[in-house]
Fold this protein.
Amino acid sequence: MRRRTLLLVAAAGISAVGAAPEAPTRTPTPLGRVVPAPASVAPDGTAFRITPTTRIQVDRNTERIGLYLAGILRPSTGYRLPVTSRGGSDAIRLRLGSRDKALGGEGYRLDSGKHGVTITARTSAGLFHGVQTLRQLLPAAVEKRTVQPGPWPVAGGTIKDTPRYGWRGAMLDVSRHFFTVDQVKRFIDELALYKLNKLHLHLSDDQGWRIAIDSWPRLTEYGGSTQVGGGPGGFYTKADYKEIVRYAASRHLEVVPEIDMPGHTNAALASYADLNCDGVAPPLYTGTEVGFSSLCVDKEVTYDFVDDVIRELAALTPGRYLHIGGDEAHSTSHEDYVKFMDRVQPVVARYGKTVIGWHQLTGATPAKGALAQYWGLDETGAEEKAQVARAAQNGTGLILSPADRIYLDMKYTKDTPLGLDWAGLVEVDRSYDWDPADYLPGAPSSAVQGVEAPLWTETIVTTSDIDHMVFPRLPGVAELGWSPAATHDWDTYKVRLAAQAPRWDALGIGYYRSPKVPWPAE
Ligand code: NGO
């Protein structure tokens, strides 16, 4: 019933509400000037213009994305842009159900010309990605939330686009510093703009436990009560967490929750004395050292705890994966580490999820179907790389997060006020210029599921801190994950990247003005 009313109202009258006067001319953004680079672009020299009479044409299955698009376009254009089932020219058409199988599960086709723009896809995810392309083809001012002068041209031609990898992620560490649901939503919107599809949340670490577990309430009550530097910390209730998952899904991102174990567990150990081998709870921790904590591998209560946590977390997770950490278990012997992983991985499977672990998991026996997240460096020793490569040869999938390439918490230069430098300084060209397919010697390229850029937050406190470290590096990671290898070229990429800056300005995103990029004058 609600839908019908909406369509009728939408179709009833079409007029501009408070549109600003148009500037005389505006050259459309060239069709290929998009990040990530589309798989194929064929401009035809024509153009479409969004006007006060333009409609967003949808059907029952595409209405949600139509409303999302209208939500972006209406405030800045000041046009009504009704979302309607009515056809005709002068429309942005959103269509599901292309017979073109090559578009796959996330691809789309965008046709633009005098009579409108049509985005076609086989799935809503594909349609959503096509909408992100359309956004980038419009003038940057479209991102503002107040009425801006037009015109609103879109270059004519055809884009056919599908991703290179199915895993295009970013990670946010909400343990070292806590970030609110609204801050996470903002981060999600930043990822969606570049067609990322996974949001990995690092929900527990030495400094804070951030997700409510009903059967172990002190984890959040006490273990979530501080953070690095001693602030008040915080945590997500189950309702908060569901809201994050819902919002991410509305942007076609899957949330991958991580509970790091057996190391990085001081917040849990501090909350429950029983979890410690000596039965004594350590104090809460607000520093930034790593590797000093471990769950007690020989105590049965450890596995009751892990079972409860995984069961409750799996129940909050519609996605397929559950990340169990496994990095830097320096306070767990190798023997214990293997024993622990042998017992814990089947628990993940029992609750219907697939294991992901940091690549140290390959030192134990990764479960069938598990993914290992590689976070080494170019300089990581051959033996460690070979261990990961062997696991990949035996069927373990890889997510690549090389720390000296795409750790978003690494400083850009020695003068970057935020961030760490243990993996080196990572300028924007360095984070872009590598190839996931042949990155890890000996690992079959078919094992590579994609890329993920982690943002660890020992030094990151505010939204603008996040933005400064994420931009401009994240779009490069997105391009590594999405665009065909044949389009990879720093010199052309940096021009497309520079063209994003006015969009970030319009969105209120502060970014690092790297001297490597030919930014437009401010
Ligand atoms: C390492 C460590 C994290 C740190 C991060 C800082 C991994 C997987 N474990 O990455 O605990 O926060 O570096 O860059």
Summary: Confidence is low (pLDDT under 50) at residues 1-16. The longest strand covers residues 40-50. Residues 2-161 form a domain with the Chitobiase; domain 2 fold (CATH 3.30.379.10).
